[in-house]
Amino acid sequence: MYPQQETLMTTDSIPVIDFSPFIDGDAAARAEVARQMRQASSDWGFFYLAGCGMPQASLQQAFADSQALFALSDDAKQAVAWQNAESNRGYVGVRRERLDPNKPGDLKEAFNLAPEQPEGPRNLWPAELPAFRPQMEDFLQQCVATADRVLQAFALALQQPEDFFVSAHDQHHHTLRLLHYPALPAGFSAQGGESRAGEHTDYGSITLLFQDDAGGLEVRTRAGDWIAATPIPGTVVVNTGDLMQRWTNHVFCSTPHKVNLRSSNRERYSIAFFCHPNHNADIRCISTCSDAENPPRYPPISAGEHLLERLNATY
């Protein structure tokens, strides 16, 4: 566990915030954590969250499941391949996705799954890994619980009822993404300027990112410099996405980030939980995020419409 940070904004490091007082503390402690999260989301759009309540054993199992999945044969992975943006589930091969539309496809492979809805698309499960489904469904539930707690803190930070964001996410239109960055051969040269993951912002409200120790994630500062989001054991990286930026009228910002080719001689694994509002949620400027000098910057948009626009532009 990491100590609370008195000064969140620095010139060279992404803030680390201890979330345990929000989970276990009194109203004053919860308000202080929410304040720190607001400042970090405004100054950086990124922060490390320690003490988030995610069981370590579940996280370790999820990484083990991810490694087993990506070790399957190409035929087995293609049997559960991603088909379209409407379902947004299944296996995505190396270079299939292009997060930066001006660069070649990303040097990574991925597998998407999501909380299933009674009448929605179904997840695709590899037949070769019978334990994969129940273990990932359990991990999904833990991610939803953690994301809801973060959303509660965000609501308090904006002087909104604690369930303001949670109620707008209660249909669980989220995406869990397992990511594998294969090791590149010695002497590999990025002729077309490709990256392991191109420069981009996330599409939804918030993202929870779990990293292994390989590193490579970089975040762009307000000054335009790129700094490393070095893995810190016991933390989850939280960042705000495009819809949260619209919702809060840039009080919380959506920050460009990428995964560089440094240390590409070794494999990298990460797990991202993309928290997205209900598809029918009306995303419009929150009342406490605008005034006469800072009027709403965006017209209202439905969360589902926004997501489809971004996904169709990516693949």
TrEMBL record:
UniProt entry keywords in alphabetical sequence: Ethylene biosynthesis, Iron, Metal-binding, Oxidoreductase
InterPro entries to which the protein is assigned, alphabetical: DIOX_N, IPNS-like_FE2OG_OXY, IPNS-like_sf, Iron_ascorbate_oxido_reductase, Oxoglu/Fe-dep_dioxygenase_dom
Short name of one Pfam family: DIOX_N
Cofactor(s) annotated in UniProt: Fe(2+)
Top-rank taxon: Bacteria
Biological pathway: Alkene biosynthesis; ethylene biosynthesis via 2-oxoglutarate
EC number annotated for this UniProt entry: 1.13.12.19, 1.14.20.7
Catalytic activity: L-arginine + 2-oxoglutarate + O2 = guanidine + L-glutamate 5-semialdehyde + succinate + CO2; 2-oxoglutarate + O2 + 2 H(+) = ethene + 3 CO2 + H2O
Domain Fe2OG dioxygenase: 172-277
Keyword Nuclease carried by entry: no
Subunit structure: Monomer.
Family that this chain belongs to: Belongs to the iron/ascorbate-dependent oxidoreductase family.
PANTHER family: 2-OXOGLUTARATE (2OG) AND FE(II)-DEPENDENT OXYGENASE SUPERFAMILY PROTEIN-RELATED
The protein's name in its UniProt record: 2-oxoglutarate-dependent ethylene/succinate-forming enzyme
